[in-house]
């Protein structure tokens, strides 16, 4: 399967190269290819993401893995049309969901990072295109009904762990213009509190109350710990020499 995709997109294989010049050239070629697409359907996006998954799978050493994960997440900006971006994101979730159960533990960290980087980009795109929330996030990582096997549990929980972090990292929480987006994402998580899967329900309830969110409340244990730290700071520490 991987060989077939390499034959179709020879520059994808070179994304995993240890040669920085070759890697950069391949990335530029892929961006040019995407920017030339007047349309992109989900089937085409899936084919591309299968190759990109393979490229990251083959990439060794933390620094190149981190660079490639960020580069792959940002590829969507090369697509000229919102409809193509939506198809691109759907292709991403479909491929990651299919491959997640088959990803070895030793290789999992780089794909966890890819999901984080891609989710942040989706939030940035969602500020201009509501379809990213309605047609992508609602139907994939935040789906609470239907075929819940479509997205593996581990992938769902990872997204539930990172969504507030990425709302913060993309400045959505501090941006008044992104207030509606924050609420829409929050509503998706709120709906998951009635999900049939217990682990999803519990994680959704826990993260929905994150103190960084407009409606969030601080964890009592954290508040107690902070108060204890303050008390310690007030204690006399002896004579400083």
Please explain how this structure is put together.
The chain has a domain at 62-215. Helices cover 66% and strands 0% of the residues. The protein has helices spanning 2-8, 10-13, 20-35, 42-58, 62-74, 82-99, 105-126, 131-137, 153-169, 179-191, 198-208, 220-234.
Short descriptors:
241 residues; mainly alpha; globular
User: For the residues shown, what is the average pLDDT?
Assistant: 87
- Largest beta-sheet characterization: none
Structural class: mainly alpha
Let me know the number of strands. 0
Beta-strand percent range:
under 5%
Record the SSE blueprint:
Layout: H1 2-8, H2 10-13, H3 20-35, H4 42-58, H5 62-74, H6 82-99, H7 105-126, H8 131-137, H9 153-169, H10 179-191, H11 198-208, H12 220-234
Family: Belongs to the RRP1 family.
Protein name: Ribosomal RNA-processing protein 1
Organism: Clonostachys chloroleuca
Describe the structure concisely for a colleague.
With 241 residues, this protein is an all-alpha fold. It is built from 12 helices and no strands.
């Amino acid at each position: 399967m991987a060989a077939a995709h390499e034959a179709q997109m020879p520059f994808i294989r070179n994304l995993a190269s240890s040669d920085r010049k070759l890697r950069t050239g391949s990335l530029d070629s892929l961006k040019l290819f995407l920017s030339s697409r007047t349309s992109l359907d989900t089937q085409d996006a899936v084919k591309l993401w299968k190759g990109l998954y393979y490229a990251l799978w083959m990439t060794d050493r933390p620094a190149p893995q981190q660079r490639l994960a960020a580069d792959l997440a940002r590829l969507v900006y090369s697509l000229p049309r919102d409809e193509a971006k939506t198809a691109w994101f759907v292709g991403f979730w479909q491929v990651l969901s299919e491959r997640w159960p088959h990803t070895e533990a030793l290789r999992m960290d780089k794909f966890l990072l890819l999901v984080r980087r891609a989710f942040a980009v989706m939030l940035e795109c969602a500020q201009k295109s509501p379809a990213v929330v309605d047609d992508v996030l609602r139907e994939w990582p935040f789906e609470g009904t239907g075929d819940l096997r479509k997205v593996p549990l581990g992938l769902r929980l990872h997204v539930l762990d990172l969504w507030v972090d990425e709302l913060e990292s993309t400045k959505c929480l501090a941006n008044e213009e992104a207030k509606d987006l924050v609420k829409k994402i929050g509503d998706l998580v709120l709906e998951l509190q009635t999900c049939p899967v217990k682990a999803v329900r519990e994680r959704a309830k826990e993260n929905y109350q994150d103190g960084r969110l407009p409606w969030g409340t601080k964890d009592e244990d954290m508040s107690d710990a902070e108060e204890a730290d303050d008390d310690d700071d007030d204690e006399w520490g002896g004579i400083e020499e």
